[in-house]
Amino acid sequence: MRIKGVSGMSETPVEARKFVEGVGGRLSSSKSQTYANAVLAIEGRNNPFIAKYMLAGDLACVLSAHELGVTPTADAKALARCIIDLLPDCERISRDRSIGDIVVSRELWIVEAVGQDAGSWLHVGRNRAESLRGSLPRMFFRDALHREHVALRRLVKALLDRAEPNMTAIAPFYHHLQHAGRTSLGEYLLSWAASFNKHFERIEQADKRLDLAPPPNCGRDIVVDLINRVGHRLGFSEVGKVWQELFITEEHFSEPFFILAQIAVGLGRLAEDLRLFMTSEFDFFELADEHASGSSGRPQKKNPFGLQAVINGASVGAGRLASQFAANVTLSEEADSTYHAYHLYEFSRDVAAWTEFMADVIEKGDFKLGELKAKSTLGFAGAREALDVLVYEHKVPYRFAHRVCGELVRVGTDGASHE
Q: How far apart are CA 213 and CA 222, in angstroms?
């Protein structure tokens, strides 16, 4: 294969490019270098994330079309062999050798390998929108949600495992970063487990709505049969009944991303807690060395760069989610957001990596039980318990009891008169 990327367009055989791009048909010339730089380069950024799904779709289509007697046996064999050979290395190839979107790029790779005669059968039964806007994002996000589900199970298990032996390990409770009361380390960790546990149901619901293959683009019986077979081979339980059903709101981009961004926010909040607890003023938690970085200028420091990456990533994801919703507000027939989806795909991978990382942090980090217990009494944290004793055990009116406890704290802090 001689494709070298956008800058190497001239190195792609001219006839192969004309064959794929339609030059000599509706178009009289190939793409300009300015078009390549401004458009094709952007379209190609999705390719490393969705190349394997495109090739999987190609293989399903080639096999289905041959079963129905559409694609000749020799050509089907050549295409299937080429696709199978491309699959293991397709992510690297799509980074290094892409010209435009994956529909164009992978057709160039295959045509160069098997020739135009066999390559002419690759696109049978489909068009670009059904892939880029229909099946590929659904396949990517179903896989991404599954990977996140696995990572999230590990994180929840890590939280439960650390919580169980620490259910009675006294720890301070904070409200607005002020000492507010006493809890246990186990209860604190269980609270995070309960919070993340809710996302399993969200993932399951989103996957169910993503489980929809593009419908046939015509009513011809053989095409309907072909498209149904392809959808089944790709793991979809249903095929859309109405063609626009899959594209009209583009929620298949935003809904799974919303769930992943919401998980990222939870990860960011947990990471922010641990980053604060690492400070010498708190000294409640210490990262394992394998999860921390040193300082280039201050040898005493242990920097939580990994926690900061999770925190900042959650902030970036919230902005990306908002931009995707904004991009969805467009004509229902077509949307350029398809070509800018690479940042959604990239972030989806990042969230799974962050979830695995945070599970590892919880599993191997050191919660300092002595410091947690010692500092649980600071800031008159027992005042709330005293308030409850007055109200519930001695029937003192709540507001009166609240004022009494507040005055006692003021006496203790600044020597105010208690008369």
A: 17
Q: So what's the pLDDT on residue 247?
A: 78
Average pLDDT of the segment spanning 122-147: 91
292 within 8 A of 361, measured Cβ to Cβ: no
On whether the CB atoms of residues 83 and 62 are closer than 8 A, the answer is yes
Cα(59)–Cα(48) distance, integer angstroms? 18
Instruction: Map 156-219 to HEC letters.
Output: HHHHHHHHHHHCCCEEEEEECCEEEEEEEHHHHHHHHHHHHHHHHHHHHHHHHHHCCECCCCCC
Residues 6 or more apart from 384 whose CB is under 8 A from it?
A: 180, 181
Q: Which two tokens stand for residue 322?
A: 């908002």
Tokens 């590990």 locate to 154
Bridge partners of 142, per DSSP, are none
Residue 337 CB neighbour total at 10 angstroms: 19
pLDDT tens-digit series, residues 240-259: 888 777 777 888 999 999 99
DSSP 225: H
- DSSP character string of 101-149: SHHHHHHHHHHHHH-HHHHTTTTTT--HHIIIIIIHHHHHHHHHHHHHH
Q: Each residue of 48-92: pLDDT tens digit?
A: 999 999 999 999 999 999 999 999 999 999 999 999 999 999 999
Lowest model confidence (mean pLDDT) among 24-28, 201-205, 287-291: 24-28
CB-based burial, 34-43: b 16+ in 10 Å, e otherwise: eebeebbbbb
DSSP 3-state assignment of 318? Answer: helix
How far is Cα 291 from Cα 307, in angstroms, rounded to an integer?
A: 9
Amino acid at 104: V
CB 103 within 8 A of CB 128: yes
For the full predicted model, state whether its pTM sits above 0.85.
Answer: yes
Give rounded-to-5 percent helix, strand, coil for the chain.
70, 5, 25
Per-residue pLDDT tens over the stretch 379-402: 898 898 999 999 999 999 999 999
pLDDT of residue 92: 94
Is the distance from CB of 47 to CB of 95 less than 8 angstroms?
yes
Residues listed for the chain: 419
